[in-house]
Design goal:
There is one protein chain. Helices cover 42% and strands 16% of the residues. The chain is of the alpha+beta class. Strands 1, 2, 3, 4, 5 and 6 form a 6-stranded antiparallel sheet that branches. Strands 7, 8, 9, 10, 11 and 12 form a 6-stranded antiparallel sheet that branches. Strand 8 (324-328) and strand 9 form a beta hairpin.
Length: 579
């Protein structure tokens, strides 16, 4: 067979593997509605993990197919260029062409062990320009804005139907109507030109969201209906969200990926970006569970940023870590983390252990408290943009993970994470007592919510937490995390003997929460504040209770918007009658 024929056949097989992978991905995603309706929360968590593993499984099968067909390293560059051209032609009219391109990149990257980063054989840049709007009618439902508010909601719930009843649909309709009338004046309501809702319902954990917008002549308003189920698995409307800030938090980088079934992810993400213009495109792909393509879009965005900026990479602000070397580009909103060659004596862990911990977080419900991380191999930076101080520090601490050429710094393995203000630096700089109190309260809530997600944070020094622009505290250092069952929480002995603790027998997995106050926060007034707000964190009984919750398999639901926005569960007027 001719080289062209062989290249075309392999390209076709790669696309078959992608299509099979996407069908698998969609089947799991579509199952979210049934799991939500039946309250199958453990199955929901298992589905999240399974969906994350799909990509690697399909990729391995595609690469194995190539090795069965050809002797890879006997092919010249012309063969791989021809194969890319064949694949690009196959993508004409493909509804997920952008995801398929990323899958192809992963195949080529795996074949060449990420040594051949070349647009001639990969899709470093997309093969075509996607124009949002061309498939809009395939992902959006439109509702008549000339009806009454109540009629509009009734029409909406005739389209977004569930196989279980509502707890009290009339009550929910009234709550929704009152909430919208509080948000918009009569004149604004009369000026509404369209109500557009994304067709897929967005499921995550124990909640579901119907997401869209209200269009008016001068601006648009996010329009999100948050749904939950009660103990009897009847649905109720929990809140109406019309603020971009609230929607941004729902799509936050510290939350698990949504289950939202669509054949047209490019159109859905384009619509979402119109709602959330401050969100990067790659963040929205990741929020939909397409984290591999999100990495591709990030890399393209990063290359564009390098082209239009001139600052230098430098060590990130904050206390140096014992396991990770962290640096950033001041003008860009991420940090780069490399595992050091050697760890401090206090860290009794291995390089593989660190990787396993980061993967554990990826597979867990991050409950809005653990930053998502993205793993890259052979990541390339222009050498002239790397500061001399950073380069010297990398050579000293991470020599086995980097390679220098005349023009590039190549990092063999790194993680990328959203940039935040380290908590210790934030508290050093903040003087407003209300903000300090809020942040210490956030720290306690962060630790507790991570524990309820069946994760013991391990190293809880302040430098391992960050503060977001919205003032949320997020955990981001994972080298000592473990499942709750893997630690033995003990009380310190009560004794008059001042040397009793020195003779205490301690196993490697033993933890004494009473000692947490000595290292979670440093200054005395902050310790007292933490103890007053979250004193139970310093008791072994609290942590043993968290272990029991995890052992029972209880799945928690942490509402990603202000609880004050939740509708009361009584019928309006009922509480006054009962009183």
């Amino acid at each position: 067979m001719s080289e062209q024929h062989i290249a075309g056949r392999i390209a076709y097989r790669i696309l078959q593997h992608f299509d099979q992978s996407y069908r698998w991905f969609s089947r799991i995603t579509r199952g979210a509605q049934e799991r939500f309706e039946k309250g199958q929360w453990q199955a929901t968590q298992n589905a999240v993990k399974e969906r994350i593993t799909i990509y690697e499984t399909s990729l391995a099968e595609a690469v194995a197919d190539i090795y069965q067909d050809i002797t890879v390293h006997q092919q010249n560059d012309g063969f791989w260029q021809t194969m890319k051209q064949c694949y690009a032609r196959l993508l004409d009219g493909h509804p997920q062409f952008e995801l398929a391109e990323t899958f192809y990149n992963s195949v080529i990257g795996r074949v060449f062990r990420h040594q051949k980063i070349d647009d001639a054989v990969m899709f470093l840049q997309p093969s075509r320009c996607y124009l949002p709007g061309q498939d809009r009618h395939k992902v959006v439902n439109s509702f008549d804005p000339t009806t009454t508010v109540r009629q509009m909601y009734q029409a909406l719930f005739k389209v977004y139907r569930f196989n279980v009843p509502f707890e009290n649909i009339e009550r929910d309709l009234e709550h929704l109507e009152v909430a919208l009338r509080k948000r918009l004046t009569t004149e604004q309501l009369a000026s509404v030109t369209a109500v557009e809702m994304l067709q897929p319902v967005f499921y995550r954990s124990k909640a579901a969201y119907v997401i869209g917008r209200i269009c008016m002549p001068t601006h648009t308003l996010p329009f999100v209906i948050a749904l939950q189920t009660n103990a009897s698995q009847a649905i109720f409307v929990d809140a109406l969200l019309t603020d971009r800030k609230d929607l941004s938090v729902i799509f936050g980088f510290a939350r698990s990926y949504f289950m939202a079934d669509t054949l047209y992810p490019a159109e859905v993400t384009a619509f979402l970006q119109e709602l959330l213009p401050n969100k990067k495109h790659f963040e929205l792909y990741m929020a939909l569970g397409h984290f591999k393509h999100g990495k591709t879009v990030f890399y393209r965005n990063f290359l564009d940023h390098l082209q239009y900026s001139n600052d230098s990479f430098e060590a990130a602000a904050g206390t140096r870590g014992l396991v990770m070397m962290v640096f950033d580009l001041p003008s860009y909103g991420v940090v780069f983390k490399i595992i050091k060659d050697e760890f401090a004596e206090s860290k009794k862990i291995t390089r593989q252990h660190v990787k396993d911990c980061y993967r554990l977080v990826k597979m867990s419900d991050r409950v809005g408290r653990m930053a998502d991380t993205h793993e890259y191999v052979n990541f390339r930076l222009p050498r002239h943009r790397v500061s001399n101080d950073l380069l010297a520090e990398l050579q000293q601490t991470c020599a086995s993970s980097i390679e220098l050429t005349d023009s590039e710094l190549i990092i063999r393995h790194l993680y990328i994470e959203r940039k935040m203000t380290p908590l210790n630096l934030y508290l050093e700089q903040e003087t407003d007592p209300d903000k300090v109190r809020h942040t210490i309260n956030e720290l306690g809530l962060c630790i507790k919510q991570i524990a309820l997600a069946n994760i013991f944070p391990g190293d809880m020094l302040m430098k391992n937490f960050g503060v977001t622009r919205q003032g949320r505290v997020i955990f981001y250092d994972y080298d000592e995390i473990c499942l709750m069952k893997d630690r033995n929480f003990r009380d310190l002995p009560k004794s008059e003997d001042p040397y009793a603790i020195d003779t205490l027998s301690v196993a490697p997995d033993d933890v004494f929460p009473e000692q947490f106050e000595h290292f979670i926060v440093g200054k005395r007034h902050l310790k007292e504040l933490l103890k007053s707000l979250h004193g139970n964190l310093l008791t072994a009984s609290y942590w043993r209770e968290m272990q029991q919750i995890a052992q029972r398999g209880e799945v928690q639901n942490f509402t990603p918007y202000n609880p004050k926005m939740c509708f009361p569960r009584e019928t309006p007027g009922e509480s006054e009658i009962n009183a």
